[in-house]
Structures are given as structure tokens and as C-alpha cells.
Design brief:
Number of helices of chain A: 1
Number of strands of chain A: 12
Largest interface: A-B, 37 and 44 residues
Number of helices of chain B: 3
CATH superfamily of the largest domain in chain B: Collagenase (Catalytic Domain)
Strand order of the largest sheet of chain A: 1-4-5-8-9-10-11-12
Oligomer: heterodimer
Number of strands of chain B: 22
Order of helices and strands of chain A: HEEEEEEEEEEEE
Radius of gyration of chain A: 24 Å
Distance between the termini of chain B: 54 Å
Order of helices and strands of chain B: EEEEEHEEEEEEHEEHEEEEEEEEE
Strand content of chain B: 35-45%
Helix content of chain B: 10-25%
CATH topology of the largest domain in chain B: Collagenase (Catalytic Domain)
Chain lengths: ~230, ~325
């Protein structure tokens, strides 16, 4: 009995590439589904927020730094989900949301009275909610199993300091691209397909915890599992 | 009938007296056994300027310089205090005559005092009734727009004294170094209310700093002030509360400093008037000070500890307090 069950699992694993072969041809002729839901992980790289010195004024009107500081929003992982709908052939419109817990780091150095350098931190909770478009590269430009895509979007950024004592809001924009890897597909069932999606993006955040109104770009990498309906 | 209490020359700006790096400090008076912040009960506060010049400055230039200094304090958007020029007067500063008078006086015996402020207080309420300022003609003065390298800038010193006039005590957000022949020289300061004046020719103290603005706003809070926040906490050494530590909150986003210090047996501090956002907190000893010129020292100030930063980012909420910040310091 146990042996039979193990065989069944093996059959599934071996069968998957076979089904995927079918799926790889699916974008050309099959129905990928009108809707797609994905969930996965997201890593956003660090965002330099700025440097400020603790300046005092000298007699001549110049400045003298008691110490210096440099502040960063550290890179951090999180989760991301999206729901997309195919609006025209290879074009999807999507809504997305993510959640992460990056650290705000202030590095202190150069104290004129000899205090040791150190880095102080707090952990933020960062939430994004936005929308975007995805362009799946048509197979007339591309052959093979992987489906390349380009994506762009933006939305609302919400950053909550520890214990929710302060909430900073801002905006984000992102542009990037990646590939979808269809693993299973069936044009006859409610679930049209299952696959994986990886992408790399440039995420541009403005305001929020940033010290200025400038846009700050960070690299980001996402990996998700999607289901098509 | 009001009981009047006269405090004579409680606040002066001096040349080279040893002062520590404190932060803004409010005057307090004891009324019925409780501590009350010294402040004007009603605004605008009327002031008069003497009709005599001195120290190389005419009466008209004195009035103009004083008016600019009052306007600078009045322009603080988070403070509600306003002032009104009552006119020129032949009255003398320092007399309990019901007029708040600013003017020159010859006080050669005060050879390190550029100017000083005295108060008349309603002892039953702690409210200010009268405040006078004299500028010492033992020193040369200037109202030149760019300063005069051989004279002290009248507007800068007036700005400092009007801070006292309004209820602020000395701040000490600044650094000094010993001078040959005694006394101290200001290396840098980040508060107009720092007790030692810049050198002759400097006009750097014509502009209020974050510490001054927080101080005047704390005494006379306006609507916008309530959108600001505070940091409160405690400083300890060997697990015991530490009295007399200097605590500075640094706004990492704006680069501004506002301070306070621990003045009770629990080693507690509270710094108000802070912009919402992440701050660092630095604690240092008051190890070069005549402390009794800042506050009534009834117990020994502990200066045997190393400068330390709080090991976390402190986030100031909008209109609230950060919550308890406990900074543990160690022996030198």
C-alpha cells in the first residue's frame, strides 16, 4: 500500500513536465484563462533616505558637526499577492498588494566628544497597494516554454513605525520584467493553469519615511506561484 | 492684594562664563508649593524702550534693533506670544514701575555681563507682571547689518534677552573652550538662549534655532504646536536614576536638535516641541558648568559617565509622546 502511494507521487512528479510541455504550447493555441491569482515573496533592496549632521552654528555663521548621521531603509523580504485580468490578448491589468518589515537604520559617527559610532534601528511595517499592467510577450517573438513579460505599475505606500506611533504615507512606482513558467494547464477545467513567476523590478518610492520629496529607486525581486482561471 | 516678588538680574548673557551644553529650559516659580512655569498671562506684551542711546548706538537704532528682535520671536509659528511697542520712555530698566523697559545702562562693575533681564512676578499665580532688560554700556555695541568686528551685535543680544523676557531660561546647546586668561570662548552654539555671547562682530545669533523655537512654543503653545510631539524617559547609571544629565533629541530628517535634562530624583526628562519622525537621543554629562546659574541645584549632579546614544531609533508621534525611553550610561 505504501509502495503504491509512493509510486503515485513519483508519477505525478514525472508527469508534470509532460503536462508542462502541453502548457508551453498553450499560449499559442490554448486558453490561459482570463483571471490569474498569484502569491509569493518579494524582496525590496535598501533605500538611502539621506544624511544629516548635528550641526551647531559657529561665530562666523558656519557650522560645526557634533556628530553625523546617515539613514537607510534596509532591504527586506515580504509577501506579495496580485489578481490580474486579461484585458486584451497578451495584456493583463492587475491589482497588487505587498507587506514587508524593513528596518530603518540610522548610523551615527564622528562624535566630537568621543561617543562610539553605532547604528540604531527600528522595524517598520510597510504595506503597498497598487495596480499595474503586464504584457506577456507574444510567442511570435518568442519560442519555448517560458513566457517572458514586462510589467509596470504603482500605487499607495504606507509605512508604520513601531507600535504604530506614526504612520507615513507615500507612493511607489515600479517597472520590470520576468518570466512565467507554466507548470500545469487545462483549457477544459475551471482552473486553467498553474505556474511560477519570477521577476526583477526597479521600485521607486517617494515620501513615506523618506526625508525629502525625491524619488528613491531600489531593486526588487519577486517570486510567486500563480493560478489561472 | 497681590504679593509681588522681584527677581533681579536672574538671567544675563555673559562673556566667557563656564556653561555646559544644556537644552531649552523654562523658568519656574513655586506657587503654593507647586512649580509653575513663568510666563505672561496676557498678550500682547507691551514694552517700552528708553529714549537714550549708549555704547555707540543711538536711541532710534536701539528701538529698531529691539523691534526686530521682538518680531523674530513673534514670528515663531508654533508660539502664541505677541508683543506691542508701547513707546519711548525716560524710565530706567530695573525699576518696579509697572513698565517693561529695555534700554542702556552703565554697569561697569559687571565686567562680564553684556545684558541682563529682571522680572516682577505675581507670586500668587506665577504670572509675569513686568520685565526689564538693560544693555551694559561698558561694552561697545553695533547695529550694523553685517556686524562690526569691534563691537557686539545689539540685535543678537536683544534676541537672547527677549527670550528671558518671555520666560525662557538659559539653554546650553553649545560648546565652549577655555580661554587663556580665564573664562570660556564659544566654539559653536545651536540656541540663541546659550548663555555666552559669540565674539564681537558676529551676527550668527540673530536667528532662532530649533531649541529656542521649541522652548518658546512650549511656554506659549499655539495650535500648530499640538501637532508636534515629545520624547520622555529616564537616564540611569548602575540601575539608579541619574540626576543632571543633558539629553538631546536629534531629528534625523531635519538635522535639528532640541534638548532637555534630568532634573528630578527619578532621573526623568521630557523634551517637547519635536517634529514627528525618527530621532536619535544623545546623553552627555554636564561637566563644565556653573549649574546653579541654570537651575536650583539642591543635590549633586553626576557627571561621571560617558556620552551615550540610546540604542534604538526613537519615533516621535504627531501630537503625542514617544513613550518611555530609558538610557543606561556607564562610568567614564
Amino acid at each position: 500500500m505504501t509502495r503504491l502511494r509512493n509510486l503515485a507521487v513519483m508519477a505525478l512528479v514525472i508527469a508534470a513536465p509532460g503536462r508542462a510541455t502541453v502548457a508551453s504550447a498553450q499560449p499559442r493555441s490554448g486558453d490561459p484563462g482570463r483571471f490569474e491569482v498569484s502569491i509569493g515573496s518579494l524582496w525590496i533592496g535598501h533605500e538611502p533616505l539621506g544624511s544629516n549632521d548635528a550641526n551647531e552654528t559657529t561665530s562666523s555663521g558656519g557650522t560645526r558637526a557634533l556628530f553625523t548621521t546617515s539613514t537607510d531603509l534596509a532591504g527586506a523580504g515580504g509577501v506579495e499577492g496580485r489578481v490580474s485580468v486579461r484585458v486584451w490578448r497578451a495584456v493583463e491589468a492587475e491589482v497588487e498588494a505587498s507587506y514587508g518589515k524593513p528596518q530603518l537604520k540610522i548610523s551615527i559617527a564622528g562624535d566630537v566628544e568621543g561617543a562610539a559610532p553605532l547604528t540604531v534601528t527600528e522595524t517598520l511595517r510597510q504595506i503597498t497597494v497598487g495596480a499595474g499592467v503586464v504584457w506577456n510577450v507574444p510567442h511570435r517573438f518568442w519560442s519555448g516554454r517560458l513566457v517572458p513579460f514586462a510589467t509596470a505599475g504603482g500605487g499607495y505606500l504606507r509605512q508604520l513605525h513601531e507600535n504604530d506611533v506614526l504612520i507615513d504615507t507615500g507612493r511607489y512606482f515600479q517597472i520590470g520584467g520576468g518570466v512565467k513558467v507554466p507548470l500545469l494547464s487545462s483549457s477544459r477545467r475551471f482552473v486553467k493553469g498553474v505556474g511560477a513567476r519570477v521577476d526583477a523590478r526597479a521600485v521607486v518610492r517617494s515620501k513615506g519615511v523618506a526625508f525629502d520629496d525625491a524619488r528613491h529607486a531600489s531593486p526588487a525581486i519577486g517570486a510567486a506561484v500563480f493560478v489561472g482561471f | 492684594m497681590r504679593r509681588l516678588l522681584s527677581l533681579v538680574v536672574v538671567a544675563a548673557i555673559v562673556l566667557g562664563g563656564a556653561r555646559p551644553a544644556l537644552a531649552y529650559l523654562k523658568f519656574g516659580v513655586s506657587v503654593g508649593g507647586r512649580q509653575v512655569t513663568l510666563k505672561w498671562a496676557q498678550t500682547p506684551v507691551r514694552y517700552f524702550v528708553t529714549n537714550q542711546g549708549g555704547g555707540g548706538v543711538s536711541a532710534t537704532d536701539l528701538q529698531d534693533a529691539v523691534a526686530r528682535a521682538f518680531a523674530t520671536w513673534q514670528a515663531v509659528p508654533t508660539a502664541a506670544i505677541t508683543y506691542q511697542f508701547g513707546g519711548a520712555t525716560s524710565a530706567t530698566p530695573g525699576r518696579d514701575d509697572g513698565l517693561s523697559t529695555l534700554g542702556f545702562q552703565s554697569r561697569p562693575e559687571l565686567d562680564r555681563v553684556l545684558a541682563a533681564t529682571s522680572f516682577l512676578i505675581d507670586a500668587s499665580t506665577g504670572a509675569l507682571i513686568e520685565s526689564d532688560i538693560f544693555f551694559n554700556t561698558a561694552f561697545p555695541w553695533s547695529v550694523a547689518a553685517a556686524g562690526d568686528p569691534n563691537r557686539y551685535d545689539l540685535e543678537s543680544v536683544a534676541l537672547h534677552e527677549i527670550g528671558h523676557f518671555s520666560g525662557l531660561a538659559h539653554s546650553a546647546l553649545g560648546e565652549t573652550e577655555l580661554r587663556e586668561g580665564g573664562g570660556r570662548r564659544v566654539v559653536s552654539a545651536e540656541a540663541v538662549m546659550f548663555p555666552i555671547a559669540f565674539a564681537m562682530g558676529s551676527i550668527a545669533a540673530r536667528t532662532l534655532k530649533a531649541d529656542d523655537i521649541a522652548g518658546i512654543s512650549d511656554v506659549y503653545p499655539d495650535g500648530d504646536f499640538r501637532q508636534l510631539g515629545s520624547i520622555s524617559g529616564q537616564v540611569t547609571k548602575d540601575g539608579q536614576p541619574l540626576f543632571g544629565a543633558h539629553v538631546v533629541a536629534f531629528d534625523a530628517a531635519r538635522g535639528s536638535m532640541v534638548g532637555g535634562f534630568t532634573l528630578n530624583a527619578q532621573g526623568q526628562f521630557s523634551i517637547a516641541g519635536l517634529s514627528p519622525g525618527p530621532h536619535t537621543v544623545r546623553v552627555e554629562p554636564l561637566d563644565d558648568a556653573d549649574l546653579d546659574s541654570f537651575f536650583d541645584v539642591t543635590r549633586t549632579v553626576d557627571v561621571d559617565f560617558r556620552i551615550a546614544f540610546f540604542d534604538r531609533v526613537v519615533v516621535v508621534p504627531r501630537g503625542g509622546d514617544s513613550g518611555q525611553v530609558t538610557v543606561a550610561v556607564v562610568h567614564k
